[in-house]
Design brief:
Layout: E1 9-17, E2 26-34, E3 37-43, E4 54-57, E5 62-65, E6 67-72, H1 85-88, H2 91-107, E7 110-115, H3 119-129, E8 137-140, E9 145-146, E10 176-177, H4 180-193, E11 199-202, H5 221-233, E12 238-242, H6 245-254, E13 258-261, H7 267-276, E14 279-281, H8 284-293, H9 301-324, E15 327-328, H10 346-355, H11 359-366, H12 368-373, E16 391-394, E17 411-416, E18 419-423
The chain binds zinc ion.
Zinc ion binds at residues 71, 73, 116, 333.
Length: 428
């Protein structure tokens, strides 16, 4: 990052360090950062602090890796009315709101986001990279791929308004409609052409798509294989919206790396996920919010109804997957507005509450495993020598009270790649 001060050494001292690996915390720890990279960590005395270092004494509070939401959408949407709002609002307004959302995410301790489909994120990524806008690192899918009559084909609109390549009205949730192996290859290449960091596909029907259901299989195995092949050829991976058991299994067999939602994952799907090291992102947070505020927010009635119908099974099936040892990462599926960015730590709490994870396991899901889900496990996700210094300081001990992470007042310091973007700690 251009704003990184060359040669700067920062020593975070007097810290309870949760390193994101799942190892027990280091008490009275020191974390040493140089040029935006973690160069050392350990208990006081075991880390040599250079004389010129800037000391940040965190007074016994907790230091951990920056949080990661590995499935969300930066859309700038304000309401839950995704039929009317996108059509009557100019695209620039959505961008402006999303810039504010990026700031809220930093305030909440999120230093990386995996955007699972939105041109807003695809373009704002560059503004964040060049330092013009403050925000988390954005790993963006950009334009999601959907079949005709798929979850990403907004069935209530004329079909030519839905595809990014043919529409005359840009909206935050545009995608690419493709059918058959050849069109799927071309759409994958088009998404990459537009700057996608990974490819997002709709492998099943969904809750918030009018005429289909989560159980419907979407894309054939051959179509998925073709898309995965194109992603791999370009050094990328595929992340699938998959809710029905057939769509989930097709996606895993087809080589998809990340399964989002996974509502009806069955025994066979669980075995496949374990075998192939597939990561599951349940996104309980969006369902919680839809059930709380969806009706008031203008969500269509059919969406609300489907949400209520599937939630119980969703929790039960993901619990089985978790108990069987499938990797689980955090993702909220929040889109902004009523499904507010900045409250994304809710998913960490949901993993504890709905699945029975320990706070430590849920933190690992939001750091190490979420980093893997966005393809950055070598660079971020744990406090490890040589990794980028994405670090937050949390008031108190989230291992004894996971709710601490939900209140942004408790996020005392946020550092991305060694650059401090939020600081409420008085330095001596
Ligand atoms: Zn999503």
């Amino acid at each position: 990052m251009s704003s990184k001060r060359e040669g700067e050494v920062i020593a975070i001292t007097n810290a309870r360090i949760i390193d994101g690996t799942g190892n027990p915390p280091i008490e009275n720890g020191v974390l040493l950062i140089k040029n935006g990279i973690i160069v050392d960590l350990g208990t006081r005395g075991s880390v040599e602090i250079p004389e010129k270092a800037r000391i940040i004494d965190v007074k016994g509070n907790t230091v951990m890796p920056g949080l990661i939401d590995a499935h969300m959408h930066l859309t700038g949407m304000k309401t839950g009315d995704f039929i009317k709002e996108p059509l009557i609002t100019p695209i620039g307004v959505f961008f402006a709101r999303a810039v504010a959302d990026l700031k809220a995410l930093i305030d909440a301790g999120f230093t990386t986001i995996g955007d699972a489909g939105s041109i807003i994120a695809l373009h704002l990524k560059y503004a964040v990279l060049e330092g013009s806008v403050i925000g988390p690192r954005i790993i963006a899918a950009g334009l999601p791929l959907s079949q005709t009559f798929g979850h990403g084909d907004a069935h209530y609109l004329p079909v030519e308004w839905v595809d990014y390549r043919t529409t005359k009205k840009l909206t935050p949730l545009m995608g690419l409609i493709c059918d058959g192996v050849d069109e799927c290859r071309k759409a994958a290449r088009y998404a990459l052409r537009e700057g996608a960091d990974y490819i997002k596909i709709m492998a099943s029907g969904g809750v918030l798509s009018e005429k289909d259901r989560p159980e419907y299989r979407q894309f054939t195995l051959d179509e998925i294989r073709a898309i995965v092949d194109e992603a791999r050829a370009a050094g990328r991976f595929v992340h699938a919206h998959a809710q029905g058991s057939e769509g989930i299994k097709n996606a895993i067999i087809g080589g998809v790396k990340v399964i989002a939602h996974g509502i009806f994952i069955d025994e066979e799907g669980i075995e496949l996920a374990k075998e192939r090291n597939t990561i599951l992102i349940p996104t309980f947070s969006i369902t919680e919010r839809i059930l709380e505020v969806g009706e008031k927010a203008g969500l269509p009635e059919w969406g609300l109804r489907k949400c209520e119908e599937v939630y119980k099974a969703h929790i039960e099936n993901i619990r089985k997957a978790y108990k069987a040892g499938v990797k689980i990462a955090t993702g909220t599926d929040f889109i902004g507005g009523v499904f507010r960015h900045g409250e994304n730590a809710l998913e960490i709490k949901m993993l504890v509450k709905k699945l029975g994870m320990s706070p430590m396991e849920a933190i690992v899901s939001a750091t190490r495993i979420a980093a893997e889900a966005v393809g950055l496990e070598d660079k971020i996700g744990t406090l490890t020598k040589g990794k980028l210094a994405d670090v937050i300081v949390v008031r108190g001990n989230p291992l004894s009270d996971i709710d601490l992470l939900l209140n942004t007042e408790n996020i005392l310091l946020v550092m991305k790649e060694g650059r401090i973007l939020k600081n409420k700690i008085r330095e001596t």
